[in-house]
Write a structure and sequence with these properties.
The structure holds two protein chains of two kinds. By secondary structure, chain A is mainly beta. Helices cover 0% and strands 53% of the residues of chain A. Chain A has strands spanning 5-7, 10-13, 19-24, 31-38, 42-50, 53-57, 64-68, 74-78, 87-94, 103-104, 108-112. In chain A, strands 2, 4, 5, 6, 9, 10 and 11 form a seven-stranded mixed beta sheet that branches. Chain B is built from no helices and twelve strands. In chain B, the strands form three sheets. In chain B, strands 2, 5, 6, 10, 11 and 12 form a six-stranded mixed beta sheet that branches. A four-stranded antiparallel beta sheet of chain B has the order 3-9-8-7, with no helix packed on it. Chain B is globular, with a radius of gyration of 14 Å. Chain B starts with a strand and ends with a strand. The chains are: A mainly beta, B mainly beta. At the A-B interface, strand 4, strand 5, strand 9 and strand 10 of A face strand 5, strand 6 and strand 11 of B.
Chain lengths: 113, 114
């Protein structure tokens, strides 16, 4: 158990819909990262927050957004969903981000039908 | 921009045989290097990391890796594999000024057979 909790574990939704994925980082970790894992793109970095502020952005679509709340949990919002958004979405956390290892959650498997 | 290349997409290996998974990276700045393992239907677990110091790094489950700066490589090795080592292995790079975001390779699927 990495200490990073992601909910829900599975999500099936229709095209055009909006979903929210939730992540609770390890106790004491200030950095939260979101990654997408798909068969065609592999593991891609989406976005990072540190202590409530956005720190780095990857190839995140405009239809996707995220935030980190004062209690340090984070949410990834995916809207206007398309079939190609079906993937495994991972959250990871680390103490600070610089030179520290990231611990990954079990992921949320999103299936868009 | 950085990139990570895992040279083998799949590596079949017999139980108790050694295995080496190859990883090469490119970056214009100094990097930290990681190997993660993903078991079926699981998240990623850190096997080992290179931050600085000795270029030979030992990790969990008997794995080790060697950082070679001149060849920009970070190959992972295990002298004797078990059936339970069947999993996907990812090499990852983090640039030192990047706040820890990871660039992953495409992964190497290791299949251990008796």
């Amino acid at each position: 158990d990495s200490g990073v909790t992601q909910t829900p574990k599975h999500l099936i939704t229709a095209t055009g819909q909006r979903v929210t994925l939730r992540c609770s980082p390890r106790s004491g970790d200030l950095s939260v990262y979101w990654y997408q894992q798909s068969l065609d793109q592999g593991l891609q970095f989406l976005i990072q927050y540190y202590n409530g502020e956005e720190r780095a952005k990857g190839n995140i679509l405009e239809r996707f957004s995220a935030q980190q709340f004062p209690d340090l949990h984070s949410e990834l919002n995916l809207s206007s969903l398309e079939l190609g958004d079906s993937a495994l979405y991972f959250c990871a956390s680390s103490v600070s981000g610089v030179g520290t290892e990231a611990f990954f959650g079990q992921g949320t498997r999103l299936t868009v039908v | 921009a950085q990139s990570v290349t895992q040279l083998d997409s799949q590596v079949p290996v017999f139980e108790e045989a050694p295995v080496e998974l190859r990883c090469n990276y490119s970056s214009s700045v100094s990097v930290y290097l990681f190997w993660y393992v993903q078991y079926p239907n699981q998240g990623l677990q850190l096997l080992l990391k290179y931050l600085s110091g000795s270029t030979l790094v030992k990790g969990i489950n008997g794995f080790e890796a060697e950082f070679n700066k001149s060849q920009t490589s970070f190959h992972l090795r295990k002298p004797s594999v078990h059936i339970s080592d069947t999993a996907e292995y990812f090499c990852a790079v983090s640039e030192r000024d990047s706040w820890g975001k990871l660039q992953f390779g495409a992964g190497t699927q290791v299949v251990v057979t008796p």
